Amino acid sequence: MKKSLLFAVLCLCSFDLAQAQNWPSFRGPNATGISNSTNLPANWDAEKSQNTRWKTPIPGLSHASPIVWGDRVFVTTTVSSQANLKFDPKSDAIDHRADLVRHSYRIFCLDKNTGRILWERTAYEGVPKIKRHPKASHANATPATDGRYVVANFGNEGLYCYDLDGKLIWKQTLGFLDPGLKGEPDEQWSYASSPIIYRDLVIVQCDIQKDSFLAAFNVRDGRQAWRVAREEWPSWATPVIYEGKNRTELITNSPRHLRAHDPLTGKELWRFREEIEVKSPTPVVAGDLVYFSGGYPLGRPINILRPGGNGDISLKQGETKNDFFVAAARSGPYTPTPIVVGEYLYSCNDRGLLICYNARTGEQIYQTRVGEKGATFSASPVAADGKLFLASEDGDVYVVKPGPKYELLAVNPMGEVCMATPAIADNTIFVRTQNHLVAIGQPRKTAQLSPNQAPGQVIDAMTAAWNAHDAVQFASFLHPEIELKDVGRSEVIRRGRQAFLESAAGYFRKHPKVRVEILKRIADGPFVIDQEKLSGLEGQPDKVQTVILEVRDGLVVRLWGLPEDLK
Questions:
Q1: Euclidean distance between the first and final Cα of the chain, in Å?
Q2: Helix, strand, or coil (residue 118)
Q3: Residue 506: what pLDDT?
Q4: Which residues contact 361 (CB under 8 A, 6 or more apart)?
Q5: How many helices (H) and strands (E) does the chain have?
Q6: What is the pLDDT of residue 17?
Q7: How far apart, in whole angstroms, are the C-alpha atoms of residue 523 and residue 518?
Q8: Which H or E run includes 20?
Q9: What pLDDT shows up at residue 520?
Q10: pLDDT at 567
Q11: Residues 6+ apart with CB under 8 A from 235
Q12: Residue 475's Cα: distance from chain center in Å?
């Protein structure tokens, strides 16, 4: 009995640890938007590098969210051969962009701790087969991983599976996918439903103008496991999994019907009639309930259903409830997915109207406007550490305290448009802006440099401090006496230079390859405004310049070579 109890506790601890460290797909574990991460900052400034660990440029245009597994972060993008691609984050027009030029469809893998790009792969190159909405991209779908493989869905350009080291395992063609305005085949708005991985199956939802379907592929070899046709209108929602006491259900949010399928066979289990055009939000599973939102026009109700039915569970004429239809919250979002935190359901719509409901009954608790007048939202809210994070198209992340009363904790500028939903893992918030991937978190104390310290630890820690603009931490890594809380900034600068001269010179003489690797990683970094030209990095450690810092207002702005007699 004691052994069984211990095993159960260990399993729960392992699960919580995995939840905190990993964010495997759109909106994290089963798209809940919830992380067990702690010690997250409420305040930061990506432009001034406050509580910013690193900031890495990602080329191209993409609204796909980052995902995290272990020490790796994955993002997708499309890079156009046309400069200055037109993109309008505020557009709500029934319109499109043709983009009839060559695009490169890519996936990036980054080091979670430093932001360094570990590998980059081009999945496909060519002219897009369909158009996109003015505020969309050709890489809207968030990738998914199970810790062994990472899967990216580029819609018409294919489904691709890599191992975590970037080796292509398989690829699949999904056919012609043309979601857009129902009945208007020329108004193509590009594909957006993200893949999910359930057991050993990669599942994709393809609700399009004609011949909609669900399909599953074996994650190991890409072989199709099942495919079922659906009479559905175009949607952009991602499916989720509901694990009930008696069975597991694959839940989809589609315009004609809300549905559940058997995830292992694709067989339809139940459907609930809606017949509402344009569905984007993902279903939200919380406890024994599922929440469905979206649809044109803006402000459609959020339907709260209880899974477990069979066949048609729609309301009959004159009914307001049945065994499976629980309630309807008054008004929901058009694009963002709602979130359930504790006993509350939060909906932030495209125009910044935040409404808090009782999650069981749908009763409204409060309603307020987030941000200044005109602030708009496409990204979905996420939550952790007693904080609700809402990223706006205007480039600000609003931090709200969950609860029955509205309490705005902070407004944090990112400096760029934010369309993608943030990820939260390992006590870090990963925000995808229009041009960068940014890691937000409390400063991490690094170990001090010593002659016997492992080179890998030195490289990673120093690179992380450099990428975070943290000149003080970079210097304190080299010298234990440097502490921001103990000395003024000018003194930090002076002692930082001296520490580098004294401490780095001896360590790098003993480990010349460490010096080479650090220089390679920071020489072309996005935070060096002005730098001396560094050459001869490959294979010539004796000739490579060691560097010291010059900082202005806490930012690294220049690289300097050590004097000849200290090399």
A1: 65
A2: strand
A3: 57
A4: 327
A5: 6, 35
A6: 41
A7: 8
A8: helix 2-21
A9: 62
A10: 31
A11: 179, 193, 205, 207, 253, 254, 255, 278, 279, 280
A12: 31
Task: Quickly list H helices, 443-511.
Answer: 455-467, 471-478, 489-499, 505-510
pLDDT, tens digit, 9 for 90 and up, residues 85-125: 777 777 776 777 788 899 999 999 999 988 889 999 999 99
C-alpha–C-alpha distance, residues 239 and 235, integer Å:
11
Whole-number pLDDT of residue 559 = 38
Spell out, as residue ranges, where the chain has pLDDT lower than 70.
Answer: 1-20, 93, 444-454, 457-512, 514-567
pLDDT score for 36: 94
Token pair listed for 325: 């239809």
**Residue located via tokens 């935040």:** 354
CA gap 261, 242 in Å, rounded:
10
Give the number of other CB atoms < 10 A from CB of residue 282. 33
Residue 398: predicted pLDDT: 97
User: Which positions ≥6 away from 148 have C-beta within 8 Å?
Assistant: 163, 164, 219
- Predicted pLDDT at 556: 38
In 332-419, which ranges are continuous DSSP H helix?
none
At 131 the pLDDT is: 87
Give the CA count within 13 Å in the CB-facing half-sphere of 35: 32
How far, in Å, CA of 184 to CA of 107, rounded?
Answer: 31
pLDDT of residue 50: 84
Backbone angles phi, psi at 79, to 5 degrees: -110, 120
CA distances from 339 to 198, 293, 358, 424 (A): 21, 11, 12, 14
> And the tokens for 322?
């049945």
* pLDDT value of residue 474: 52
- Give the residue among 308, 275, 311, 310 at the shortest CA–CA distance from 289: 308
Strands (E), 422-528: 423-425, 428-432, 436-440
Task: Report DSSP state, residue 444.
Answer: P
Q: Decide: residue 353, CB within 10 A, 0-12 exposed, 13-18 middle, 19+ buried.
A: middle
Partnered with residue 77 across adjacent β-strands are 106
* Closest-CA residue to 114 (of 416, 480, 432, 458): 458
Q: How far is Cα 306 from Cα 278, in angstroms, rounded to an integer? A: 23
311-312 vs 268-273, strand pairing mode:
parallel
The pTM (predicted TM-score) of the whole model is: 0.80
Q: Is 487 exposed, middle or buried (0-12, 13-18, 19+ CB in 10 A)?
A: middle
d(CA 456, CA 460): 6
Extract the tokens encoding 136: 């969309």
Q: Which two tokens stand for residue 211?
A: 């011949």
The Cα–Cα gap between 158 and 327 comes to 39
Looking at the DSSP bridge assignments, the partners of residue 188 are 180
pLDDT of residue 251: 98
- 224-230 vs 212-218, strand pairing mode: antiparallel
Q: Are 158 and 126 in contact (CB under 8 A)?
A: no
d(CA 503, CA 488): 21
Give the DSSP H/E element, type plus range, for residue 450: none
pLDDT of res. 516? 64
